[in-house]
């Protein structure tokens, strides 16, 4: 056989979990190898966060151009050349993935192309189309990510697509059925609705965007409906028939069977961890019932020199959570005392308006027996929001009653995705509502909403009664 190549730390998967772990491990003086079977950047950069946000912002611009009459702007004949949108989206992705490759090389991380599986707890085999190579390692970090779930009655095809397919369409569909109103389904629905696609969302639960408060998801629903979308909740998608140039989806709602025709059906019903073909069993790495890898607070698996991070472990399957764990795992390998703490991991939906949440909701605090105050401030009372002609929304600051400690925040409104960072910092730093209220926020900015919500928590807001 081949001669094994020795390395200190080997990382499997170069998504936001793996590449960040590799860079941090290299910074900490380890000899690092990263194995990637697809493209550097993983789901997030190639077929997830970044291309979806690119399509969302393009859709937003297109829609705004034709709907700013209130501000005295009428645009006629606004057109979209979707192949150019796609080319631009591709260029954004390429800049970022190229950047990540550069960062890895700059940190002297060896990038290996191929599919990895464990032979034993210190040996990995990497197969590519043209070669096979064995690596021995002291420590490994598994960051193999996740894959869209396929529903048995909706086998993927040209017209039955997952998020990857929806991001790669070469023209704006005239209609699309979206099964699953989670954040991925809702974001893509919003993007295409802005481009003019007639969207029908079929959601099994009684609300879309489960996990966000109803008052927040209600704003998103209203906006989707304004753009012609139909949202059917408590709907059970049953089957699909492919026609010559489209699909007919059958679903059941309130015991009644219905049909809807569309160009495409997009299935976004969740993702499953890529933990099946790695030889984990062989090494004795324990998994949960859901196929997630079991880890401790330092991302260590049941095999002590092997770590796991990102979508394949417990916790919200989000890019920034994967990266955060990547740093913890690399630091743990270097002997640091770093540990994960999920409280301040933000969750964002790039819908219209944007939704963002960090820490506890009022309800969650209650369930944990924490006496909390939810202090609300509306975007409509903020000068910047009004001058943006985008004043739909609110912030809710959640503080502990006994001492005003900031323990959570929820935001629905323009800029929520950026505004949530300040609240994450407040939680991490153990700040109180008073600390935020006493911080001078520039005028006129959306940031003042945060200051005012803190004033509400203290009982003395200036700009609402
Ligand atoms: P991944 O990014 O999935 O990367 C894993 C990598 O491992 C892949 O490149 C894969 O090819 C490689 N790999 C797998 N098995 C092997 C093997 N055996 N050998 C070698 N390589 C292997 N998250 C956010 O935080 N914000 C967003 O806005 C957001 N938007 C999203 C939109 C969409 C449409 C989707 C699908 C996801 C979105 N996500 C978002 C989720 C985010 O993409 C994931 O949480 C994130 O990519 C997980 O990172 P990861 O490093 O765990 O794995």
From TrEMBL:
Transmembrane segments: none
InterPro entries: Class-I_Pyr_Nuc-Dis_Oxidored, FAD/NAD-bd_sf, FAD/NAD-binding_dom, FAD/NAD-linked_Rdtase_dimer_sf, Lipoamide_DH, Pyr_nuc-diS_OxRdtase, Pyr_nucl-diS_OxRdtase_dimer, Pyr_OxRdtase_I_AS
Additional note from the record: The active site is a redox-active disulfide bond.
Reaction catalysed by this enzyme: N(6)-[(R)-dihydrolipoyl]-L-lysyl-[protein] + NAD(+) = N(6)-[(R)-lipoyl]-L-lysyl-[protein] + NADH + H(+)
EC number(s) on file: 1.8.1.4
UniProt family annotation: Belongs to the class-I pyridine nucleotide-disulfide oxidoreductase family.
Cofactor entry: FAD
GO biological process terms on file: 2-oxoglutarate metabolic process
Domain Pyridine nucleotide-disulphide oxidoreductase dimerisation: 345-453
Keyword set, alphabetical order: Cytoplasm, Disulfide bond, FAD, Flavoprotein, NAD, Nucleotide-binding, Oxidoreductase, Redox-active center
MF (Gene Ontology): dihydrolipoyl dehydrogenase (NADH) activity; flavin adenine dinucleotide binding
UniProt cross-references to PROSITE patterns, sorted A to Z: PYRIDINE_REDOX_1
Active site, per annotation: 443
Domain FAD/NAD(P)-binding, chain residue ranges per copy: 8-326
Chain sites annotated for binding FAD: 53, 144-146, 311
Annotated protein name in UniProt: Dihydrolipoyl dehydrogenase
Cell compartment(s), UniProt: Cytoplasm
Annotated residues for binding of NAD(+): 180-187, 203, 270
Protein's gene: lpdA
Cofactor comment text: Binds 1 FAD per subunit.
Disulphide-bridged cysteine pairs: 44-49
Pfam families with a match to the protein in the record: Pyr_redox_2 (PF07992), Pyr_redox_dim (PF02852)
A cellular component term, taken from the record's GO annotations: cytoplasm
UniProt key word Nucleotide-binding: yes
